[in-house]
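Narrative of accomplishments. A recurring question from our advisory board has been how the design workflow behaves on a single, concrete structure rather than in aggregate. To address it, we present the structure tokens for one chain from the evaluation set, followed by the sequence designed for it. No filtering or post-editing was applied between the two.
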């Protein structure tokens, strides 16, 4: 951990507790933004209410989506029926099956996770920082990575509308990645496939060496830079009580 991260961590523990106790949204928002800018995420262990969590989300930007992430057969069926396509590897939010590393919709700059109830065994959120990709690939390879398109979907009148975004771009302060293996467009060139394979190998390497794994406790929160950090979840039990509220926030950090 470098000195900047250490200073943020030491400053934030006490400052976050005070900001939450005093409901000082301006101070709390500033701390969250600073931490996300440096390391891509912040884990807030201080317990808060769901209402306060939602209020923070609205302070960070425009809340585009709010989802109850839990095993739910009715919601699962409804989500499947709304889909424009049903790839075999495409996960479902309401299923107990594992969800591999991915980004959420690219218009969601931040994601907030709030724990209502945790899985009895695990249910951890796993994250990978994609910032080092700049050192892993050459400028030519990064240029090719920018040309690879990845689908993303939004709901209109209960049905998916398919859009596309670049897999990689360079933001104002950080790299910007949008990746979901099940949304990759099929028609890519040999050069694109070669670089894509290198990118996917980088994901595997990062998972082996620098995996972030956080098991939220009831009332705890994580805010994540969706365009920098990939996230995933391992399989949970079909009868798991895990219940996470997820906010998709359309705001740059």
């Amino acid at each position: 951990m470098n000195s900047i991260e250490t200073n943020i961590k030491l400053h934030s523990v006490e400052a976050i507790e005070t900001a939450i106790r005093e409901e000082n949204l301006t101070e709390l928002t500033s701390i969250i933004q600073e931490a996300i800018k440096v390391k891509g995420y912040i884990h807030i262990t201080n317990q808060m209410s769901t209402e306060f969590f939602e209020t923070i989300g609205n302070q960070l930007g425009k809340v585009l989506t709010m989802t109850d992430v839990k095993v739910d057969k009715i919601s699962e069926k409804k989500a499947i029926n709304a889909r424009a396509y049903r790839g075999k590897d495409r996960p479902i939010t309401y299923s107990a099956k594992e969800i591999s590393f991915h980004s959420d919709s690219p218009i969601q700059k931040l994601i907030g996770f709030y724990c209502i109830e945790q899985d009895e065994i695990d249910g951890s959120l796993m994250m990978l920082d994609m910032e080092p990709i700049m050192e892993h690939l050459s400028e030519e390879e990064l240029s090719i990575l920018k040309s690879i398109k990845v689908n993303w979907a939004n709901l209109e009148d209960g049905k998916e509308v398919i859009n596309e975004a670049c897999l990689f771009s360079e933001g104002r302060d950080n790299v910007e990645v949008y990746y979901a293996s099940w949304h990759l467009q099929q028609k890519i060139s040999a050069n694109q496939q070669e670089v894509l394979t290198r990118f996917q190998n980088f994901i595997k390497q990062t998972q082996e060496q620098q995996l972030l794994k956080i098991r939220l406790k009831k009332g705890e929160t994580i805010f994540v830079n969706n365009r920098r950090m990939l996230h995933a979840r391992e399989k949970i039990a079909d009868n798991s009580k895990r219940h996470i509220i997820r906010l998709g926030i359309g705001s740059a950090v």
